[in-house]
Amino acid sequence: MSNFVNMDTFSNYQKYIDNEQELRENIRLVVREIEHLAKDAQIKLQIIHSDLSQISGACGSARKLIEACAEKYVKLATLVPPGQYYRYSDHWTYITQRLIFLIALVIYLEAGFLVTRETVAEMLGLKTKPGDGFHLDVEDYLLGILQLASELSRFATNSVTMGDYERPLNISHFIGDLNTGFRLLNLKNDGLRKRFDALKYDVKKIEEVVYDVSIRGLSNKDNKDGDQSVAATE
């Protein structure tokens, strides 16, 4: 009696499944290496919340770890078949967003401005256009930047504790501009929209810190303004 099902077909299916599982496992191994490096970079940067004098050194150490991550992304790009970036992107999306946040934090601490997507891509060894292969997705960039707001709101509070009363004002201006920029976007991605909605709480928290500094007369700017007012009445 002849078989109605060709068993060789199922053997081919099994080969496909085995190859797919092997590829995903290789991708996971590289992603884990990136995660370990990113975790070390984040640990290095936590010193900013307790010792302002260590900011420069922490940024330098984080940069070296980020450079090591870029090497891993090169390896990751060789594993992903051409044209199948989004098929496997769930493996590295979260850690990429985390690295974007860390890079944005380093750049802010060093220079005080928002890092561009192009600079982040360059630092991680990624492309910016999907058609060019392994690239930095726009939504990943935006989600990573939104993580920066939460970290800076915490940094503003801790800066006051460490006696730096001007930094919260600078952070407030920066986050205010960031908030304005995001409001220009028509966000349709649910995850991105929800994360953006949380930005208003970061803005409010920083404003409260600035207000507290102001009413206590701790800011040099407030003191100068007060001195000028007194001089004008004399």
TrEMBL record:
Family membership noted in the UniProt record: Belongs to the translin family.
Give any GO molecular function from the UniProt entry: endonuclease activity
A biological process from GO: RNA metabolic process
For this UniProt entry, what is the primary localization, expressed as one broad class?
Answer: cytoplasm
Q: How does it assemble?
A: Ring-shaped heterooctamer of six TSN and two TSNAX subunits, DNA/RNA binding occurs inside the ring.
By its UniProt entry, which InterPro entries does this protein fall under?
A: Translin, Translin_C, Translin_fam, Translin_N, Translin_sf
Location(s), subcellular: Cytoplasm; Nucleus
Superkingdom of source: Eukaryota
- UniProt name for this protein: Translin
Q: Which GO terms describe its cellular component?
A: cytoplasm; nucleus
Question: What is this protein's function per UniProt?
Answer: Exhibits both single-stranded and double-stranded endoribonuclease activity. May act as an activator of RNA-induced silencing complex (RISC) by facilitating endonucleolytic cleavage of the siRNA passenger strand. DNA-binding protein that specifically recognizes consensus sequences at the breakpoint junctions in chromosomal translocations, mostly involving immunoglobulin (Ig)/T-cell receptor gene segments. Seems to recognize single-stranded DNA ends generated by staggered breaks occurring at recombination hot spots.
Segments crossing the lipid bilayer: 95-115
Q: Alphabetically list the UniProt keywords.
A: Cytoplasm, DNA-binding, Endonuclease, Hydrolase, Magnesium, Membrane, Metal-binding, Nuclease, Nucleus, RNA-binding, Transmembrane, Transmembrane helix
Q: Which organism is it from?
A: Drosophila madeirensis
List positions binding Mg(2+). Answer: 151
